[in-house]
Design brief:
heterodimer; A: about 260 residues; alpha+beta; 5-stranded mixed β-sheet; two-stranded antiparallel sheet; 9 helices; 7 strands; elongated; B: alpha+beta; 17 helices; about 35% helix; about 15% strand
Chain lengths: ~260, ~650
């Protein structure tokens, strides 16, 4: 396919490892097809870098369909670049003009240490999930799925929260590096469903505690997270999380010891 | 010696086999389960659900993934849905019908007993996923919604907008993370399996590379489950994620696990067409679109008018014309081939001529834009982002692309490979889809294997097998570690002139041209001459900059391409030997007016390849297939 071609100057953050000092390095992206994705443009730049025997720019990516949440970095100050509701893998070069200079750097947050170049370690998100982002249901003998009736509006709202891809753009966009949008999306998804509502208090307490202990900042409701989110996860999730957390704190009961005589 | 390809199908009527097997399986006492360790390689639907279930049962599980988080596994990208024989719509579905459709859809090259079990547990899967919080689409009254999918005439597909794979994966992942919290599952991220360790003929561990540090690690266990997905990336351009590879399965193959039906690739009919230079992958548009979209091309060769300017009587709705009873919902292989024929005749659209229209104009007229947007909105947005075209105003352009691989490691009914103690789940095994995969059946198989089959098989194996104590200090582990280190050092020391991707693209091109939607003897023979040459050059001229003892993406890719260069050859050999057409394997010499012509007399079998030291000497074994319930018949969707 033909179409337009453009030339760009890229200022890319290069950093060998978490403990090394990084800096911007300039590259030329030449003759870029408007149909290429942003990552395909970087692939082409990398092919040239490798051909010179140098190490290519490291960036995380995988499905390149906007769903796995692996990719993402900051382009000209915006997480996932300038298109709203779009991951960087789905950002196509037709959105840029010939001759532009772009600054590319990793998601920055203390809880997301840089691994190399544009790659950061987001394993803190997994630890937040393992602290309570699930429904305690063993495998094998649940009741028939239609025995739990869920109003369509509730199911849709749970689904909207569940579409979070865990990319971390919300953290990168937040001046406090808060993980409230991510955590609240999962808390909302579960709490909106009857299956998950049963343990919602315990879940809110544990997940908020995990989020805090990972060193993410506090939420001050500036909304930068919502604006950067490629899946348009809404701030209302944060309100729901706060309400639940507060309710859970106020009504927390001492835990009973299980077990008994045999 | 007994036949190594013993399928171990339980005796008795098809409806009773799984019950019988479960009862006859050996059990492990609850108190003894924690003494057994199991390694799970891959944390997609099959791997995460297996790890979660085994953890719950009390086994010590170590799960490994190449990703930075298990939630990234490529199962996440499946869009359309998951089948289950719930018959909620009261439209005539049943376990038997799902079984029947799947056997027929697979063009009679799947094992009946496995498929029946899949259909049987499908209903449990939906219950399980709902109970753990998967927000499936619902009707206003609160019951689950269903839609129909290619290859089926009933509505049995459950879905969560166009993100069903993501929601199911998040469900299985959350269950696994619950076990991580409980301490039964230990998760290792960014680890790639580079060898399988076999001691006394049994799988006892794996060797992995820590992708962050470059460190080579050895891990021992009482059993290993490989759930590492499929190998469509052998084509370079496919719908698979960039990191999907055959490596884990291939290393097991080289240690003695037979590789079955490698030539069975599914070409998915509804992908966004290739746009040209620099393209890294192809994006699938959910098959569910075919429920409301009509596929057509201009009747006239070379008609380059804007689609909206082409009047109805000058359009060829070829699927509706050729297959009146299934129409746009014809199975994937059938729909893909028809698209190819239309383009081969010069009636393809797009500048490349390699695309057909998928048109929603009629549905929008009938149902309104709101309804269409509710059903497929996110897919339409994705299409617009990629192509710059608005599919509400102009028909989508689609073309077939490599998607799913039905071949994989050979397994018996218990999902055990030819190496005792090495189990294979999900797309990595060959078992349930035959020569073709119907829509919405991959998610079903991944979860069936992980939640409902492997946990029983593992119990049976560990309960009935005497295992000597091994440690990672044993010679077999040391030798495997040394082998892996040696291969890495060989690769980085080549210091040649060509990038890894350039080899991958060259191989992909050979595969697509000669072992793609259509295959013939001449092309396959040509490919079998070319691939060894590419492989030879790769090992002499690949360039991998950087440090192997640190994060090195080029090194990771090189290892995967090295394995694809071997697998590609095996795929072509398998395709050449299979002198018939079936499902996704279309041998041009064997057709009836464009329809696949099967040869049940000579090829009603699984071909399972044994590695004997190098690609040239691989030996082809056969597992004969018998069809006692769904009688062998020519597939017709007319």
């Amino acid at each position: 396919m033909s179409g337009k071609h453009i030339n760009l100057t890229l200022k890319v953050w290069r950093q060998k490892g978490a403990k090394d000092q990084g800096s911007f390095v300039e590259y030329q992206a030449k003759n870029v097809s408007e149909h290429a994705s942003f990552l395909e443009m970087l692939d082409a730049v990398n092919e040239e870098i490798v051909a010179k025997g140098e190490e290519p720019i490291a960036f995380d990516h995988d499905c390149r369909e906007g769903i796995c949440g692996t990719c993402g970095f900051v382009i000209d100050g915006e997480a996932h670049g300038k298109l709203k509701a779009t991951t960087v893998c789905q950002l196509h070069m037709r959105n840029y003009n010939d001759g532009e200079t772009l600054t590319i750097e990793p998601f920055r947050a203390n809880s997301f240490p840089v691994i190399k170049d544009l790659m950061v370690d987001r394993s803190a998100f997994d630890r937040i999930i393992s602290s309570g982002g699930y429904i305690s249901q063993n495998t094998g003998n649940p009741q028939d799925a239609n025995a739990i009736l869920i109003p369509k509006a509730d199911a849709d709202e749970a689904m909207s929260s569940a579409t979070c891809i865990g990319c971390g753009a919300c953290v990168a966009a937040c001046k406090n590096a808060s993980a409230a949008l991510f955590t609240s999306a999962k808390i909302s998804h579960m709490a909106l469903l009857p299956q998950g509502a049963v343990e919602k208090n315990e879940r809110a307490l544990r997940m908020v505690a995990a989020m805090d202990s990972e060193g993410f900042g506090a939420c001050t409701t500036t909304g930068a997270c919502e604006a950067a989110c490629p899946k348009e996860i809404q701030l209302t999730n944060i309100s729901r999380m706060n309400r639940q957390f507060l309710g859970a704190v106020l009504t927390q009961r001492p835990k009973h010891k299980d077990g008994g005589a045999g | 010696m007994a036949n190594i390809l013993d399928s171990k199908i339980p005796s008795g009527a098809i409806e009773d086999k799984w019950e019988k097997a479960k009862f006859e399986n050996k059990l492990v006492n609850p108190a003894n389960k924690r003494k057994h360790s199991v390694i799970v390689v891959g944390t997609g639907l099959a791997g995460a659900s297996a790890a979660a279930s085994l953890g719950e049962l009390g086994y010590k599980v170590k799960a490994f993934c190449v990703h930075e988080s298990p939630r990234r596994a490529h199962s996440v990208a499946a869009q359309g849905g998951i089948n289950a024989a719930k018959n909620y719509q009261n439209d005539g579905d049943s376990t038997y019908r799902l079984f029947y459709d799947t056997v027929k859809g697979g063009d009679f090259r799947a094992r009946e007993a496995n498929v029946y079990r899949l259909a049987e547990v499908s209903a449990n899967i939906i219950d399980q996923m709902v109970s753990q919080g998967v927000p499936f689409a619902r009707e206003y009254g609160g019951t689950l919604a269903n839609r129909s999918f290619g290859g089926a005439q009933v509505s049995r597909t459950f879905y969560a907008r166009g993100q069903t794979g993501q929601q199911l994966l998040l469900g299985a992942y959350s269950q696994m993370m619950r076990q991580v919290d409980a301490g039964t599952v230990e998760l290792r991220y960014r680890r790639e399996m580079l060898d399988l360790v076999v001691i006394d003929g049994k799988a006892r561990g794996i060797i992995v590379r820590n992708l962050l540090t470059g460190e080579i690690e050895a891990h021992e266990a009482d059993a290993v489950i490989i759930a590492s997905g499929g190998y469509s990336n052998v084509f370079f351009l496919s719908t698979n994620a960039m990191n999907c590879a055959v490596t884990a399965a291939w290393k097991a193959h080289k240690r003695g696990a037979y590789f079955a039906n490698p030539c069975y690739t599914q070409i998915h009919p509804t992908c966004i067409p290739v746009h040209g230079e620099n393209q890294s992958k192809l994006t699938l548009m959910s098959e569910s679109l075919r429920n409301d979209g009509r596929v057509w091309v201009p009747k006239a060769v070379g008609d380059k008018r804007h689609p909206n300017d082409i009047p109805e009587n000058e359009r060829d709705y070829y699927l509706e014309r050729v297959y009146p009873s299934f129409g746009n919902l014809a199975p994937r292989d059938v729909a893909s081939r028809q698209a190819k024929y239309a383009c081969d005749e010069g009636r393809g659209v797009n500048e490349s001529g390699k695309a057909v229209y998928l048109d929603f104009a009629d549905s929008i007229k009938r149902l309104g834009e709101d309804k269409i947007s509710e059903r497929y909105g996110n897919l339409f947005e994705m299409y617009e982002k990629i192509t710059g075209d608005n599919p509400y105003k102009r028909p989508m352009m689609i073309y077939p692309a490599p998607h799913y691989t039905m071949g994989g490691l050979w397994v018996d009914y218990n999902l055990q490979s030819t190496i005792p103690g090495c189990f294979v789940a999900g797309e990595a095994n060959f078992s349930d889809h035959g020569a073709n995969r119907l829509g919405a059946s991959a998610l079903m198989q991944g979860l069936a294997d992980g939640y409902f089959v492997v946990p029983y098989s593992i119990g049976n194996y560990l309960g009935g097998t005497k295992l000597n104590k091994v440690t990672t200090n044993d010679d077999a582990f040391k030798a495997a570690v040394d082998g892996v280190k040696k291969e890495i050092s060989t690769l980085v020391n080549i210091k040649g002139n060509r990038t890894v991707d350039s080899f991958h693209k060259e191989l992909g091109n050979i595969m697509w041209e000669n072992c793609g939607m259509g295959r013939n003897a001449a092309g396959l023979k040509k490919a079998l001459e070319e691939i060894p040459k590419v492989r030879e050059e790769f090992w002499q001229n690949v360039r991998i900059p950087g440090d192997p003892n640190y994060l090195n993406v080029e090194l990771e890719k090189a290892g995967r391409v090295a394995d694809f260069l071997e697998l590609g050859e095996l795929m072509c050999r398998d395709a050449l030997e299979r002198e018939e057409s079936c499902g996704g394997h279309f041998r041009e010499e064997h057709q009836d007016n464009g329809e696949a012509k099967r040869d049940d007399t000579n090829f009603c079998h699984v071909a399972a390849w044994e590695y004997t030291g190098n690609m040239k000497t691989s030996v082809r074994h056969k597992e004969e297939l018998t069809f006692e319930n769904v009688h062998l018949a020519t597939r017709s969707y007319k």
